[in-house]
Amino acid sequence: MPVSLDFIGGVIGFAFTIMILSYLIGDNPLYRIASYTFVGVSAGYIATIAYWHVLLPKLILPFISGGSSERLLLGVPLLFSTLVLMKISPRLTRLASPAMAYLVGVGTALAIGGALSGTLVPQFFSLINAFDADIATARNANFLEELVEGGIILAGAISTLVYFHYGAKKHSEDGAVKRMGLIELLAWVGSIFIAITLGVIFAGVFSAAVTALIERVHVVLLFIFSLIGPV
Amino acid sequence: MNDIKCPICGEMNSANSETCSNCLSQLRQGTDALRDLGKRPIQPGQVPTKKTTSELEPILPQWLQDARSQTSSTPSWQEGDNNPQINNQMPLQQPPKPSVGAKPVASSGLPDLLAGLQSQANEEEDELPSWLTGLAGGVEPTKAKPQEPPSFGSRRVELRGGTGQLPPLKNQSESAAAPRITATQAPSEKRGGTGELPPWLAETMANDVRGQTTDDLPGWQAPSVQGGVPEAAQSVDTFGVGLAGLGESDAPVVDNSFAQSGGLDWMNGLQSAGESAEFKDDVQDQSPFDSGTPDWLSGSGVPAVATSVSNDTPDWLASLDAGPAQSDVVEQASSSDTPSWLSAFESPSVQPAVVNDAPSLSNDDAPAWLSGLGSEQSSSSAFSEPPVAPVSSASATPDWMNDLGSPSNVPVVSASNDNLNSLFSETPDWLSKVEGGNPVTDPFFGKADTSNAFAPGTMDDVAPADLPSWVQAMRPVDTSVISGSQASTRSGASEAKGPLAGLQGVLPAMSFLPTSKPRAYSIKLQATDEHQGHSALMEKIIEAETTPLPIVSIERVISQRGLRRSLFVIYALMIIAVLLVQTRIFSLPVAVPIEINSAISVAENIAENSPVLVVFDYDPGLSSEMEAIAVPLVDHMILLKHPRLTFVSTSPYGDALAERFISVSLRDRNYQRGIQFVNFGYLPGGLAGVRVFASAMPQGGFSDVTAINQFSAIVVITDNADDGRVWIEQTNGLRGSAPILIASSAQASPMLYPYYRSGQVAGMINGLHGAAIVEQRNAGLPGTARRYWDAYAISLFLAVGFILLGGLWNLFAGLNAKKLEAQ
């Protein structure tokens, strides 16, 4: 009786699921075995992916079969890749600094540029446009609703930013260090928005976890059902 | 001198005081301190040292010495007077030494009292007289005999020799007899050679000795004169039983018997004589050196007198008589530090054996004439009178000496016990100076006195500054006039610093009495009540500082294992039950959020067979949720528009997830690789890779799609808000009009929703809720959301219930705690 790969996959999935769930009773070897297995498999998988999907098609094959100009251009990533490998040795780790500096520099520039152009400016305009009736009309949205929604978003944004304002003065009356009253009020409103946001995030995390749990329990049941027959 | 001025503090003290009443310093110094006079000067105010007048002789002015020498010319008996008795004894005892007989004392022509001293002054090499050497323990190398130190008995025999009881010594060993013989013989020889006997004694000797035979002598003297041993044995009857056995017994027995029989009587008489004026007169008038020799002594002959003087008197006194003659007695004495006559008093161990013999010697067997002497005057007995000789140096003071000063200064007072003891035990200061042989520093002028005080040439130059130290000590010197050495000694060292620097002896050092025991200080704290109060307050403060304050610890919120297990069990049982039963208790959501509606609209409005970019940026752990969300959307799109799908992922797992997505979840759609979908797989570089991908599409995809803006839609399936934000940001401005649809996990949707609100994202499908809505639009396919919906809904309700229950529990727990605190 040939054993299908789905069955083997099902068995492995079932076993590792039980092993991971065993963490509920505390740290145990089964949990550690499953964890180490996942780490090892992930590392091997990533290495394989890196080789087959990055190095070989984008560096090795073009360097072998490519022209001189292409090889010359590939020399830069090849050099940097070699320098990055120097981080393996503590004595040669300084050789990887140029490559790392290049990566960090490029990544920081892209992050800042992307944040400005893709997040801050659009979010500013979004907040401003909330009070634009033409835009609301263009979006076939009720302006009043848009105005209220915009107002809440504005209040939430301002109050949340004020909440993270830590500047304060020392009052001469009682000597206590307190923020201004308006700032205190806005910060209190901002704390509400932050609490709601954190609550939403928690709900989303919980929802995602519950969905995953349900899926795992469902998989286990399916495996069991596959063994004992369809229910 | 009625009062004594303290040399330290200047306080006047009574004459009887030994120490100062103010500073308790020593007011008087004994002669012991004068022994090392060369090292330590005599301090003013000290009691004058008791000395015999013979000590004053060297310092007499020259005119006085000349006068004395003129008045007392050398008697005839002193010149070449060889006593035949002595000569007769010589063969018996020991041949006389040439050196002894050659002593030129006879040629000096000095008075008898100064004869020995003058000889000392003349001899450069012998600064000390023989008798003085014997007193000081010096030894003359030329006359020293390599014989054993005389025993105690031998010295007693010397005394006995004076009495003529020498024959018993013949029976003794040679080593012991030799010194005894010389002891009796040498003085006579010296006396004969030097002629120191006074005229009266010389005449007496000339008359009696020459005219007398041994028969005329008393019976007890006869053997000694004859020198025959048998006669000595026969003299037992005359001199007692103890003497009879002298030749057969040990010498100490004889000596002690002698001492008990009368050898010390003269000393007792001396002591008593000091108290009786009669004795004083006798002593002064009847000095054995000038006229004090009794008849019996004259009759006994020179040897008897000489031996009695030389043996019963101190050596120094004997030397006065014998002069510089180096007798064996002196030699013996020089070999011992203690004078022979003094040793007799220091031998109590032998005395008990002789006690019984003493009476017979002194009382019974004494001759008649001796008994008569004893009866007439106890102090002038035959055995007691010769010891007068040492006293005679003081008592038999010559006339010139009597003129020197008052009787108090003259050592006549030495007749008392104290003076007598000090005389025998102390060394004169000037004598100590000579003994040391070192130049003595003058305490007043600080000059080294290198001149010989006994030199004839210096006698005339006796100046007040050259007075002997003991005389200087008598001078009334002011306490402020203290030599440097004295000041440093008494008042301490010079001041090293301060305003008194350089001065010496300014500050009295009398208060500093170094003791071995440190001064005791009371350790009891002298604190007042106020101080104690402050101390208590300080202790309280310190104690409060060190007392640990209770730390108000916030109870850490930890995951309670029991509660966690209970919740898991509840959830697991609930989910298993729902999944097993496949309940449809909870209906799918009807209301469609605007972002989901927009997403469905975009999916429904893409062009047919248009390229759609699908980004798989989620982890395998959330694949169930993400597939539940993305599959209905893509499936709806496939069913409606049959788009060509291009898969790409910034996560390494994206490639596998994409393969699994298309091959497993959309297995029924049977999409073909390369025709209907292309999997670019892993896109390295993170946001940079996204930027590069958005800038330049990699080859291998659909041929008609060379740029990201050529996609009809970009579907980003992600469980991380950052991944979705990267795609939004990095493709901003590059994607053109291509809408972005976000299929995110429920945990990432709140963070991505603003992008939809800003218009950067065309639509969003969030979590299982959004998937359920899309499934409804997709005719219930593939139905995963529906399958999980009841379990999901119940889980949410349970979660809400547990949260509320937990909140209420904490509320009541807090109220209860406050209530308990209030109570």
Please give a quick description of this structure.
With 231 residues, chain A is an all-alpha fold. Chain A is built from 7 helices and 2 strands.
Task: Give an account of the 3D structure.
The complex is a heterodimer of chains A (231) and B (823). Chain A has 231 residues and is mainly alpha-helical. Chain A has a domain of 102 residues. A two-stranded antiparallel sheet of chain A has the order 1-2. In chain A, a hairpin with a 6-residue loop joins strand 1 and strand 2. The mean pLDDT of chain A is 86. With 823 residues, chain B is mostly helical. Chain B folds into 3 domains: 108 residues, no CATH class; 342 residues, no CATH class; 211 residues, Rossmann fold, CATH 3.40.50. Helices cover 49% and strands 5% of the residues of chain B. Chain B has 40 helices and 10 strands. In chain B, the strands form 3 sheets. Chain B has a 6-stranded parallel beta sheet with strand order 7-6-5-8-9-10, sandwiched between helices. Chain B has a two-stranded antiparallel sheet with strand order 1-2. In chain B, helix 8 packs across helix 18, helix 15 crosses helix 16 and helix 33 crosses helix 34. Chain B is elongated, with a radius of gyration of 69 Å. At the A-B interface, helix 2, helix 4 and helix 7 of A face helix 32, helix 34, helix 36, helix 37 and helix 38 of B.
Span between N and C termini of chain B? 103 Å
Mean pLDDT of chain A: 86
Provide the β-strand percentage band of chain B: 5-15%
Number of beta-strand segments of chain A: 2
Computed Rg of chain B: 69 Å
Structural class of chain B: mainly alpha
What general outline of chain B do the C-alpha atoms trace? elongated
SSE run of chain A: HHHHHHEEH
Overall geometry of chain A = extended
**Which parts of chain A are unreliable, with pLDDT below 50 for 5 consecutive residues or more?**
none
Helix content of chain B: 40-55%
Class by SSE composition of chain A: mainly alpha
Oligomer: heterodimer
Number of helices of chain A: 7
Biggest sheet architecture of chain B: 6 strands, parallel
Tell me the distance between the termini of chain A.
23 Å
Count of DSSP E strands of chain B? 10
